[in-house]
Task: structure prediction
Amino acid sequence: KAGVTQTPRYLIKTRGQQVTLSCSPISGHRSVSWYQQTPGQGLQFLFEYFSETQRNKGNFPGRFSGRQFSNSRSEMNVSTLELGDSALYLCASSLVGRSGGNNSPLHFGNGTRLTVT
Amino acid sequence: SQQGEEDPQALSIQEGENATMNCSYKTSINNLQWYRQNSGRGLVHLILIRSNEREKHSGRLRVTLDTSKKSSSLLITASRAADTASYFCATDEGSNYKLTFGKGTLLTVNP
Result:
C-alpha cells in the first residue's frame, strides 16, 4: 500500500499570502489529522477530519482551515501568512471508525516544509 | 499545550547500550503511543499501550505504563546507529479524535 502523500514537499511564501497544502491518506483510511511542528512549540494539533466532517480542532486562529473530500483526501489552508507560520506541516491518516476510540496508530506523511519570508 | 513531556530532552549513547526514555502526562488516557522521527521526516508509529496494560514488548522495544504515576517509559535494547532519531510519546487525553505529543527525546547512538 502507498503511504501518506503530502504535496508539495517544500514551499516558500511571503507574508500576507495564502497557501494550500494537500494530503492523500493511505487507501481505506478515513481519518486525517494535521499537525504543525516547530522547534519551539513541538507538535501542535491543528484538526482532525472523518468522512468530510471536522471532529476536533486545536487552538489555532481562524486563518488555519481545512477540509476533507469524499475520497478522504484532505487539504489545509492558511490565509494571511505570518512569519511564525513557518513550520513543518504533517498530515497523518488512521483506521478509526466513526464511533471507535483513538486506538489506531497514526500514519504520517513526510510533511510540507513551509517557509514564510 | 503539551500533554506528554519526555525526559531527557537529549540522550547520547554508544552502539550496543540500552536507551531509556520517560514520558509523563497530565490527564487520564485511553492509551499511550510512542513514535520515532528521523530528521526532517514524518513520524513512525512504534508501539501502543492501553491504559489497562502495564508492559508491552515489540522486538528490541519495551514500553511500560504506570497510570497511577501518569508516566511511561520506552526502553530500546542493544541500540544501533540507525536508532538515532527523536522519540515522542503521544496520548489521547481521553479524547477519541486527537493525539497530543510531547516535545520528544533526541537520541543519538554513536557507532
